[in-house]
Amino acid sequence: MDTPAVEPFRATLEKHGLSLVRGEVHTLQVNTGFLCNLRCRHCHLEAGPASKEVMSRETMEEVIAFAHRFPFRVIDITGGAPEMVPDLPFLIEGVAPLAARIMLRSNLTAMAAPAREGLLALCIAKRVVLIVSLPSTNPSQTDAQRGAGVAEAGIAMLRRLNAAGYGVDGSGLELDIVSNPTGAFLPVPQAQAEKKFRQDLLRKWGITFTRLYTFGNVPLGRFRGWLMESGNYGRYVRSLVEGFNPCTVTGLMCRSQISVSWDGCLYDCDFNLAVGRPSGGRKTHVSELRRLPPDGSPIAVGDYCYACTAGSGFT
Amino acid sequence: METYYDPADLEKFGEIGKDAPELAKKFFDYYGAVFAEGELTEREKALIALAVAHAVQCPYCIDAYTRACLDKGSNLAEMTEALHVANAIRGGASLVHGVQMRKIAEKLSM
User: Fold this and answer.
1) CATH superfamily of the A24-231+249-294 domain
2) Span B46-104, pLDDT tens digits
3) Phi, psi for A214 (deg, rounded to 5)
């Protein structure tokens, strides 16, 4: 098996005279759990329908109290599929007054269930920014990554969101798309991909959106497994290491966010959560934190961090 | 099994400059300039190259430009359509010579 010897990420930082430390923490990421209606092949958390890890209402109360104690500008709710978490509306209602920007990450299909009509209405009422996943404008590639029929269901949901005002100029309802590559290759620069998605979605389905983000796939969890099985691991990891761009380090998301997992424990990012590497080197519960990590405090890193610093970076 | 084509040889393309470095330099400079963003985007140029690679049936080029097309944001539907363009021209080039065949046959026939 091709598992290349990789220079440790920290050593690469040092070689460039860099260190990865916190700046001002202004974003709270809330991972509501690994329960998901899909089993995407690139998922670093290995989320799926069988996952039992789901944020409880009690933990949500502690997260809301945490967001009361500290002045976050952005609260970013993710999963799994957060829509499947029974008390998600309670969490959204609780955090909505506490930050200027509330974001909900969606795979599009989980929100489409008839029982979740009320959730969309709540998102509209609270001006929640929807960040939805659509890897490709080519349905077969979307299905290859996310499962059969996901492209069709996702497009249908995008049209529903447009009809509700999301992604429509002047509505005040922001609809952003996240596109992850559908294989062992790096993402296209964001501006270029956004232009192409805008043309394709409008031409093929009459769909509009606000902004597009391209994120590289992180070689952890199910994606790592696929890379290994398909014989792409070595080449992919080498492309991440060779693509190291020192200019990305100052803008990395982990410098300005703190991530709360479904059980209330704190991490520097969702990828450290995936490998169980807690913030500050020991498990701390959200209810215990008396101050946010100060400017200059270290961030836990691993070799998968190369995925966030390759090319244009994960910012 | 040994074959004439080894994927690892693609990375040795630069070695073609041995014994004729000036010509190789001219070629690779030209090659780089051709594929740089111009009136056509790098993505569009990679799609053309992919189609041509199939027309000339070069396994190295097919490998390189399949990767280049994906890296530059083309999707599989676009890449497949590009191949059909190459295929249509190749097929059309054969078929259009049928005009010659018919002209000659008609001259010889009652």
Assistant:
1) Aldolase class I (3.20.20.70)
2) 999 999 999 999 999 999 999 999 999 999 999 999 999 999 999 999 999 999 999 99
3) -110, 125
- Please count the structural domains in chain B: 1
Instruction: Tell me, yes or no, whether B18 lies in a domain.
Output: no
Residues of B in contact with A186 (CB under 8 A): 71
Chain B neighbors of A136, CB-CB under 8 A: 75
The answer to whether the CB atoms of B71 and A185 lie below 8 A apart is yes
The two three-digit tokens of residue B43, written as one number: 């993505």
Distance from CA of A260 to the nearest CA of B (A): 33
Model pTM score: 0.88
In a domain, B5, yes or no: no
Residues of chain A positioned with their CB less than 8 A from the CB of B67: 185
- DSSP lists the bridge partners of residue A259 as A29, A267
Q: Strands of A4-78 (E only): list them.
A: 27-31, 74-78
For the record, the structure tokens of B5 come out as 């084509």
> What is the radius of gyration, based on Cα positions, of chain B?
19
Do A185 and B78 make contact, defined as CB atoms within 8 angstroms? no
Alpha carbon of A141: minimum distance to chain B alpha carbons (Å): 7
Interchain contact, B73 vs A193, CB within 8 Å:
yes
State how far residue A138 is from chain B, nearest Cα, in angstroms: 6
Q: Which residues of A touch B41 (CB under 8 A)?
A: 192
pLDDT digits (tens, 9 = 90+) for A109-164: 999 988 898 999 999 999 999 999 999 999 999 999 999 999 999 999 999 999 99
Nearest CA in chain A to B70: A185
The residue with tokens 């190295």 is B60
In-domain check, residue B6? no
CB A28 within 8 A of CB A267: no
- Give domain status of residue B52, yes or no: yes
Do the beta carbons of residue A183 and residue B70 sit within 8 Å? yes
Q: Which two tokens stand for residue A114?
A: 């008839």
The domain containing residue B79 runs over which residues? 41-108
Domain with residue B59: its CATH number is 1.20.1290.10
Beta strands in chain A (DSSP E): 27-31, 74-78, 101-106, 129-133, 175-179, 211-214, 257-260, 266-267
Q: Are strands A257-260 and A266-267 parallel, antiparallel or unpaired?
A: antiparallel
CB contact under 8 A, B75 and A192: no
